[in-house]
Design goal:
five-stranded mixed beta barrel; Spore Coat Polysaccharide Biosynthesis Protein SpsA, Chain A; alpha/beta; 250 residues
């Protein structure tokens, strides 16, 4: 595998890893479902690559996904099936590279459309030395309050639309200080290793939210508020909407 160092504006080397588990609970084999003729996982990798912010790597438990990546010249690594979370899969792939990066981005494989700006703003959170993990949020709509598929983040923002996470959950009654959490995490080399050494926490398992492992162990997750929600694909309806978006943008 040839990986060339690419640096972002802050001169930090960035590796974008897309964890790609073959089987999914809500939408079967969603990462190989096609969007305008191209498998979703390839769409995500292509969008990440076009940002030119860092190197892109798919971490998968599937030979089928690896073959799709190979055909499209996307770098990939095979990981075990029985891995606890997306970040654990990211760490496994990162270790296999045997190369150190300043920042490692865990980018969900069901985000085929997102902007370079979201990634840049999240990388910018590491100008604060207290930041161990960086992520992003946007405004939450009333219809999303009780939608379990939409993860909510509680945060008090400062003037620059940045703040440290207070909590994450799936269902809320009161929207105050809660925002729609976007499925990406950026770690430093050290914070990724720290996270992996932690045992899965009670709240991580209860809420099915891997970020609670960090929260329950007092790791600092800093969030930035962005304007737009990158659409994720969790259901067949989501997939239909994404396909329509791609058709319109052709």
């Amino acid at each position: 595998m040839s990986i060339v160092k690419v640096t972002n504006k802050k001169n930090k080397s960035l590796l974008i890893i897309i964890p790609a588990r073959f089987y999914s609970t809500r939408l079967s084999k969603k990462l190989i479902r096609r969007i305008s003729g191209v498998p979703m996982i390839i769409r995500v990798a292509e969008t990440a690559s076009k940002t030119k912010l860092g190197d892109v790597l798919v971490a998968t438990d599937s030979k089928q996904i690896q073959n799709l990546c190979k055909n499209e010249k996307v770098d990939s690594v095979i990981t075990p099936t029985d891995i606890k979370s997306g970040t654990d899969r990211v760490h496994y792939a990162y270790k296999k590279l045997k190369k150190k990066y300043d920042l490692i981005l865990n980018l969900q494989g069901d985000l085929p459309i997102f902007t370079k700006e979201i990634l840049e703003k999240t990388v910018g959170l590491f100008n604060d030395k207290k930041t161990e993990i960086g992520s992003a949020v946007c405004d939450l709509h009333t219809s999303e309050f009780e939608d379990k598929n939409i993860v909510k983040a509680k945060v008090f923002f400062e003037n620059n639309n940045e703040g440290f996470a207070i909590d994450f959950c799936r269902i809320i009654k009161n929207h105050k200080f809660f925002y729609h959490h976007i499925g990406l995490y950026i770690y430093t080399h050290d914070s990724l290793n720290k996270f992996i050494k932690l045992k899965q926490s009670h709240n991580e398992l209860k809420r099915n939210l891997e970020q609670m492992r960090a929260m329950d162990n007092n790791m600092k997750i800093k969030l930035v508020k962005v304007k737009e929600i990158p659409p994720s694909v969790d259901t067949l309806e989501d997939l239909k909407k994404i396909r329509l978006l791609f058709k319109k943008n052709k």
